[in-house]
From TrEMBL:
The lineage of its organism: Bacteria, Pseudomonadati, Pseudomonadota, Gammaproteobacteria, Cellvibrionales. Residues 357-371 form the Glucose-methanol-choline oxidoreductase N-terminal domain. This is GMC family oxidoreductase N-terminal domain-containing protein. Belongs to the GMC oxidoreductase family. Its cofactor is FAD. SUPFAM superfamilies: FAD-linked reductases, C-terminal domain, FAD/NAD(P)-binding domain.
Length: 653
């Protein structure tokens, strides 16, 4: 059968005939695919080596979709990954760990969402990062590998309770924390510890696809001021004498040790997702390496924006998408490319899997008729399944920066020119051997894990120090790295937040539109006791205490944030409410049993009320896990692989 005929058959079997498909293209203001218009020849489609049907179609190539795609392919299934972005993440901006801020503002890789922290515009405008008429910048990536191509590389395991609570809520013992650790062992290739010969009490992985390493602690010896800050932080834990052991590598302070997952506090050195040559490790490399081995099974279609899931009744049978660069309004190149999209469809003989993340997966579900029926009808979308929880329960961390101006430029960075011609730090990174310099690390020199209150089951504060000025995301924020070499910041991150009041709602029925995103911070949320705010206040106080001690205070010119005028708890609280940010959006397609009216997926990632449709990304967590989201998402991607393959071979319901 000719390629064109196969496409026609797919359109017909997918419940969308040629006339309806052409009408759909007109509604979107784009061209239809060759099957409907004949614009592109069947030969050209074949030359691109894309098929019209795959076993699985996965929307999104990031932390959720990428490892899943690889595992399905290795199990012998054909997989199409639809990626709305391109394949441009291959240069120094992407690869060099210390350049991650530049990667997050690289126009070739970026989707720039602007979100709301509050519905109250007067409160929102108190944030220095607020962009009038837009909101607060929330950087996302649009490229093969998704946000793993631009994130800060911090690789931290969550707490056991994060998984045990899911097991309890769903009755699915496969979510038990001891079992879930297997997935971390499967994906990690730990390169900063010696491979155990006999037992493995740390439960690290050593043969996985994700290399993990530590920055070189000996770099601390190159900066006396930073060295004193680290020593002052260690003193809070009675470890003043441990500094030399840390610098020499003898005391590893391993935050990803299995024992720590039970809720240990202390100072730690957070590993990063980087290989032995100090280059970023991401899902991108994992996907492309696998595609090179299985070119006939794994197809990655870039510049392809999913517009809706195709259904026959309640059964997902395929995906409609716009082919063309810059089709989404979060793309910096959208205005140049908006009219060039070509509407296409592809069928999935087994399942469709959404892995677009906490913003795009609920948006795509709603565009496909899965969500609160009243919201769908308001936008002219016929409901397929009335699921009230789609787009609800949105969660994030709270973060603030305690920023100090030092009395002089930090020695660690004073010679760095961030890629300008003759940059000595770049030359050292490229040609150094044992010590590749400051660019070989991702920034944090020490991390402190602490409970904000002694009665908490797990620590909820992750406070990490970076030799730079960082106080959140705003257009051009990465330039602060270049502009200021005399700044040190403690970033206070509040994990296990109580607020679950965030929402992702449709702005329109146009799939190129970004959704409305409002996290409803603090007083607008449902943390009725205000525990989140009190925890961040405590974190600010800890950070200030470190910098006010005798070891450090004479190195500081002034505190920039919160600033010397901010002293009382009330004042610190106002600062926190005004200036907090987050970048771990999650939980907007909550996992739970069908008896939970707000649950969107079951414990096997299947969308309630549908067949052959799953969601595998950060949106499925009922509560935001741990301190950093990427490792939990990698783990559920590995788990979903097992669940989906078990279904395919008839081993599970």
């Amino acid at each position: 059968m000719k390629n064109k005929d196969i496409t026609n058959k797919a359109l017909s079997e997918g419940g969308v005939n040629r006339r309806k498909f052409a009408k759909r293209a007109i509604q979107l203001g784009v061209a239809a695919t060759a099957a409907s218009t004949g614009i592109v020849s069947a030969l050209s489609l074949l030359e691109r080596k894309f098929y019209d049907q795959y076993d699985y179609v996965i929307v999104g190539s990031g932390a959720g979709g990428g490892p899943l795609a690889v595992n399905l392919v290795k199990a012998g299934f054909s997989v199409l990954v639809l990626e709305a972005g391109s394949n441009d993440a291959s240069d120094d901006t992407h690869n060099i760990p210390a350049w991650h801020p530049f990667a997050s503002e690289d126009r070739k890789l970026s989707w720039d969402f602007f979100v709301k922290h509050y519905a109250d515009i007067n409160q929102q405008m108190l944030d220095d990062k607020y962009v009038p008429g837009k909101g607060i910048l929330y950087p996302r990536a649009s490229t093969i590998g998704g946000c793993t191509t631009h994130h800060a590389l911090i690789t931290v395991y969550p707490h056991n309770n994060d998984f045990d609570r899911i097991a309890q809520a769903t009755g699915d013992i496969s979510w038990d924390s001891a079992n879930m650790r297997r997935y971390f062992e499967r994906l990690e290739r730990c390169q900063y510890l010696a491979r155990p010969i006999f037992s493995n009490p740390s439960r690290h992985g050593f043969d996985g696809w994700l290399p993990t390493n530590r920055g070189n602690p000996a770099l601390l010896l190159e900066d006396p001021a930073v060295l004193k800050i680290v020593k002052a932080a260690l003193a809070r834990y009675g470890l003043e004498g441990a500094l030399q052991q840390i610098v020499s590598g003898n005391l590893r302070l391993d935050i990803n040790h299995w024992d720590v997952a039970a809720g240990q506090e202390g100072p730690f050195i957070a590993p990063m997702a980087a290989d032995s040559r100090s280059r970023r490790s991401s899902v991108r490399e994992h996907l492309l390496d696998t595609q090179a081995i299985y070119p006939n099974l794994l197809h990655i279609r870039t510049d392809s924006l999913a517009t809706r899931v195709l259904f026959e009744g309640n059964t997902a049978v395929g995906v409609e998408f716009l082919e063309g660069a810059g089709q989404y309004k979060a793309d910096p190149y959208y205005d140049e490319a908006a009219s060039s999209g070509v509407l296409q469809q592809v069928r999935a003989s087994r399942e469709v899997i959404l892995s677009g993340g906490a913003f795009n997966s609920p948006q795509l579900l709603k565009l496909s008729g899965i969500g609160p029926a009243h919201e769908l009808r308001d936008h002219g979308i016929d409901p397929v399944v009335d699921l009230a929880g789609v787009g609800e329960n949105l969660q994030d961390r709270y973060e603030v920066g305690v920023v100090s101006e030092m009395s002089e430029d930090l020695a660690l960075l004073k010679d760095c020119t961030w890629g300008e011609e003759g940059d000595p730090c770049l030359n050292r990174y490229r040609y150094g051997w044992l010590n590749k310099g400051p660019y070989s690390g991702n920034g944090p020199v020490l991390s402190l894990v602490k409970r904000s209150r002694p009665d908490l089951e797990d620590p909820d504060l992750f406070i990490f120090g970076v030799p730079s000025d960082f106080h959140g995301y705003f257009p051009g924020y990465s330039q602060a790295l270049k502009n200021y070499k005399d700044r040190f910041s403690w970033i206070v991150l509040k994990g296990h937040t109580n607020n679950t009041a965030g929402r992702v709602t449709l702005r329109s029925a146009d799939p190129r539109d970004t959704p409305e995103i409002n996290f409803h911070y603090f007083g607008e949320g449902n943390d009725v006791l205000g525990e989140d705010l009190q925890a961040v206040i405590e974190g600010v106080k800890i950070s200030r205490d470190i910098m006010a001690g005798p070891l450090v205070s004479n190195q500081i010119s002034r505190e920039l944030l919160p600033g010397s005028e901010v002293q009382s708890d009330q004042q610190i609280g106002d600062f926190v409410k005004n200036q907090s940010w987050g970048h771990h959006a999650s939980c907007s397609n909550k996992m739970g049993p069908a008896s939970d009216p707000m649950a969107v997926v079951d414990s096997k990632f299947r969308v309630h009320g549908t067949n052959n449709l799953r969601v595998v990304d950060a949106s499925v967590f009922p509560r935001i896990p741990g301190f950093f989201i990427v490792v939990p998402v990698y783990m559920i991607s590995e788990k979903a692989s097992d669940d989906i393959i078990a279904t395919a071979v008839g081993l599970s319901a």
